[in-house]
Design goal:
The complex is a heterodimer. Chain A is mainly α. Chain A has 2 domains: 89 residues, no CATH class; 212 residues, MetI-like (MetI-like fold, Orthogonal Bundle), CATH 1.10.3720.10. Chain A is built from 13 helices and no strands. The two termini of chain A are 49 Å apart. By secondary structure, chain B is an all-alpha fold. Chain B is 66% helix and 1% strand. Chain B has 12 helices and 2 strands; from the N terminus they run ααββαααααααααα. In chain B, α6 packs antiparallel against α9, α8 packs across α9 and α11 packs antiparallel against α12. Chain B starts with 27 loop residues before the first helix and ends in an 8-residue tail after the last helix. The chains are: A mainly alpha, B mainly alpha. At the A-B interface, α3, α5, α6, α7 and α8 of A face α1, α3, α4, α5 and α6 of B.
């Protein structure tokens, strides 16, 4: 929209002209074009950036004075917190010199929100980085990955013994739990979404309620029933049962959520073309939901593989390789970490960090696979 | 090339009768429906069985100890004194600390991802939060118990020094002593709460972010077109629309915080004192109690532990159900139908 220059020759203002005289409108090209400045709606001006940088410098200087000269707060968290608070104050003052109140509020809130996000990012990076840095002492030794702890004392060096038995135990237990829970969970989700009815609503209510079951209570349940009452010895089988009990409601609910968002238009089209309900589920619903379904399943498995409390009550802790789930006590990565940390021996804690790094690598790998699965589109 | 075939012309004689469409499943479908129902019944039996089992196991304990089970603070099976008052208070304290830390961070992170982040980094941030949810709790427990405890106790001492006049921040020691007693500030509900906050945060953040992203684009644009700043738009559109998600996500996180075991067991030193002093050494939670005591239990003690577990389960169940109701109400009802 360009501004029209005011001119006495407008036809609407003609009545003031004396009669008999003809006013000729000057051609518009002769007048210089007048442009109203456009309001900026996004981005930042050099002034804004200057305010940001200047405020940060001022805040850092303030923090130095406060933490090292005025008060005994000269620690890393102290300096960071004081810098952040001072930054908020300086930005508010500096912005209010040129901008109205809502703009000041906007800048301050943006700084708070960004600060929170940065802190959370830093926390995650620190979690992963600390684990690997502390695990770096144990990880390079090959025996850490392939040996077991049989005959290895708590003060033996890191070149002896390893967590191979815990890796095997984790894989056996989670594998058994997956074999049990995934078909049951997907079957239940199909039942709840595709068959429906009053009974399906009862099942859905109970399954959703059981997702609230704390994992330690699931472990205690299996311990009480299998081990204390039925006399089953502590073993990989009992641990897998505990993991299954914990994972079943979680995976079933996730699968249910995924299947529910399959567009019902697809289902109706399939049924209208004469397909049976079974064929509709097998050839339309499940393939459509496959990426999201595999993501939900893999994340459920990642949750299960890192869960300690059900395993703590049910598997016992072997120091040697056990491959059969019924061959008595077994170890797993989370349980190994737990027992090693509780022992308090510095070298065992070192091993615990190594095992934690391996566990984290396992979870990261599962996570990457889940992302890949989510991105894959079903072939047409 | 077209050929007319006379014999393929419609015969026009047979009256069209509607194909019978049976209401109940036939053929393979009968098998499918039956099989699906059987699977559903199995899962119902397993999951419902656990709930029933817990309830049944709780009966003898509650008959024996009565209401004193909820008011007694000590857990001394050898003296036949059992109660969960102090562990319940400890559980709630740890969860409260976790939420106090996690809630503001989850809210700001969710707002940043949905409103402030450049479009290029947004997917990366979303998977970062999801990844954070996948980090096993034993790793958080390990890090906080071994590495970060000294920093946490430093923060605790700072809070005690400057905010010690509030009863919540009381610790039974002198914070300004030349040699301050670090051991009084470690292994506390505060440190455990910080570790649990790391697990609660991504859950709450994911729910909030999803709800914020669903805020109607038309209303956002209307607010911006009326000249509001970005924060003005968030306050007028995004936050009111996402209120249910904020509350529901926080409550889901609370449910997780109440049931968290391993990080708490690794960090706290067990104590059965009934107190609300999160900064001071020693506390206990229901799940930590179970993890510490299950091995040495007789049948009746197992029943008592199961009762404590049932109470914890009911607590998280109520909170999760409320959260689900709140989140479901806040959905705009936009369908995904084609």
């Amino acid at each position: 929209m360009t501004a029209v220059p005011e001119s006495p020759a407008r036809p609407g203002t003609a009545p003031v002209a004396p009669t008999g005289q003809t006013w000729v409108r000057p051609p518009a090209d002769d007048l210089p074009p007048v442009r109203a400045p456009r309001r900026r709606v996004s981005g930042s001006t050099p002034g804004d950036r200057l305010v940001t940088v200047g405020s940060f410098v001022a805040a850092a200087a303030c923090a130095w004075v406060v933490c090292f000269r005025l008060l005994p707060w000269g620690t890393v968290p102290g300096v960071l917190v004081v810098t952040f608070l001072a930054y908020l104050a300086v930005v508010a003052v500096a912005t209010s010199a040129t901008q109205p109140g809502p703009q000041v509020m906007d800048r301050v809130v943006a700084a708070v929100v960004t600060g929170g996000a940065v802190l959370v990012t830093a926390a995650l990076v620190a979690t992963v980085a600390f684990t690997f840095v502390r695990g770096a002492g144990a990880l390079p030794h090959l025996n850490m990955w392939v040996d077991d702890m049989a005959g290895v004392g708590p003060r033996d060096p890191l070149t002896v013994g390893g967590v191979g038995h815990a890796i095997v135990g984790s894989l056996v237990q989670i594998g058994l739990a997956v074999v049990v829970t995934v078909p049951l969970a997907i079957g239940t989700a199909v039942f709840m979404t595709e068959v429906g009815g009053r009974f399906a609503r009862v099942v859905r209510t109970v399954v959703e309620a059981m997702t609230a079951l704390p994992s330690i209570v699931a472990g205690l349940f299996v311990y009480t029933v299998l081990i204390a009452t039925l006399g089953v010895p502590r073993s990989g089988l009992a641990a897998a049962a505990a993991l299954s009990v914990m994972m079943l409601p979680i995976i079933a609910r996730a699968a249910d959520v995924v299947l529910r968002v399959v567009p019902s238009g697809l289902r109706e089209a399939s049924l209208a073309l004469g397909a049976s309900r079974w064929r509709t589920v097998w050839h339309v619903v499940l393939p459509t939901a496959r990426p999201a379904l595999s993501t939900a399943l893999i994340l459920g498995v990642a949750r299960g593989v890192g869960e300690t409390s059900p395993v703590l009550l049910t598997s016992g802790a072997a120091t040697f390789f056990v491959f059969g789930p019924t061959d008595g006590v077994m170890n797993s990565l989370p349980l190994f970490i737990y027992t090693a940390v509780r022992s308090g021996e510095p070298l065992l804690v070192e091993r615990a960090f190594g095992a934690a790094s391996i566990l984290l690598l396992l979870v990261l790998a599962l996570f990457v696979v889940a992302r890949r699965a989510a991105r894959r589109r079903p072939s047409r | 090339m077209t050929t007319l075939r006379e014999d393929l012309e419609p015969q026009a004689a047979a009256p069209a009768t509607p194909r019978p469409v049976p209401r109940s499943a036939t053929g393979v479908d009968r098998l499918f429906v039956g099989g699906a129902r059987a699977v559903g019944a199995t899962v119902l039996a397993i999951t419902g069985g656990i709930g029933l089992f817990l309830a049944v196991q709780a009966v003898p304990t509650l008959q024996r100890y009565g209401l004193a089970f909820f008011t007694e603070t000590q857990w001394q099976p050898e003296a036949d004194v059992l109660g969960i008052a102090s562990v319940l208070v400890g559980t709630v304290t740890v969860a409260a600390v976790a939420l106090a830390v996690a809630f503001p961070l989850a809210l700001t992170t969710a707002l940043y991802i949905s409103e402030y982040a450049p479009a290029r980094v947004r997917p990366g941030l979303v998977s970062m939060v999801d990844l954070m949810a996948a980090v096993p709790s034993i790793i958080h427990g390990l890090l906080w118990a071994v590495l970060l405890q000294p920093y946490a106790s430093g923060i605790a001492r700072w809070l005690h020094t400057y905010l010690g006049f509030l009863p919540v921040f009381q610790v039974d020691t002198d914070p300004t002593a030349a040699m301050w007693e670090q051991s009084r500030y470690t292994a506390s509900a505060f440190v455990a709460g910080l570790a649990v906050a790391m697990m609660v945060l991504p859950m709450a953040c994911a729910v909030m972010r999803e709800v914020f992203a669903q805020a109607p684009a038309g209303e956002r644009e209307a607010a911006l077109a009326l000249g509001s700043t970005r924060w003005g738009m968030i306050r007028a559109v995004v936050l009111p629309f996402g209120r249910g998600g904020v509350i529901g996500g926080t409550m889901l996180g609370l449910g997780r915080a109440l049931g968290e075991t391993i990080a708490v067991v690794l960090i706290v030193s067990p104590s059965f004192e009934l107190k609300v002093r999160p900064l001071e050494v020693g506390t206990n939670t229901v799940s930590a109690l179970i993890a510490n005591r299950f091995g040495e239990s007789s049948a009746s003690q197992l029943s008592a532990l199961l009762t404590a577990g049932l109470v914890l389960f009911l607590l998280t169940l109520v909170i999760n159900t409320l959260a689900a109701v709140v989140v479901a109400r806040s959905r705009s009802g936009a369908g995904t139908d084609l």
